[in-house]
Amino acid sequence: MATYLITHEVDDVDHWFSSPKRQEVLDPLGVTVRPFRDPQGSNKVGLIAEIPDLDAFNEFMQSETAAEALRHDGVRAETLVVLAENSDA
Fold first, then answer.
1. Using only C-alpha atoms, what is the Rg of the chain?
2. DSSP state letters, 39-88
3. Model pTM?
4. pLDDT, tens digit, for every residue of 23-61?
5. Which domains does the chain have, with CATH numbers?
């Protein structure tokens, strides 16, 4: 299992936080996440994600199901950044 930091902007932070869609689509992949919001009130949000199979996750992220989930949650896909934990530290 690897840990990733995923950041992006959303249209509506409260909607994104309360939406069940993220869990619906990530649970079958075994991905667990902890959501975060910008304390300054911007539309920037983040997740710490535990991803058991990055290849399966990346394949899923290219699917129409993922695209629909992102649209549903108001994710601005062009702002999506995925950072890997430094395993050399």
1. 13
2. TT--SEEEEEEEES-HHHHHHHHTSHHHHHHHHHTTEEEEEEEEEE--TT
3. 0.86
4. 999 999 999 999 999 999 999 999 999 999 999 999 999
5. 2-82 (3.30.70.100)
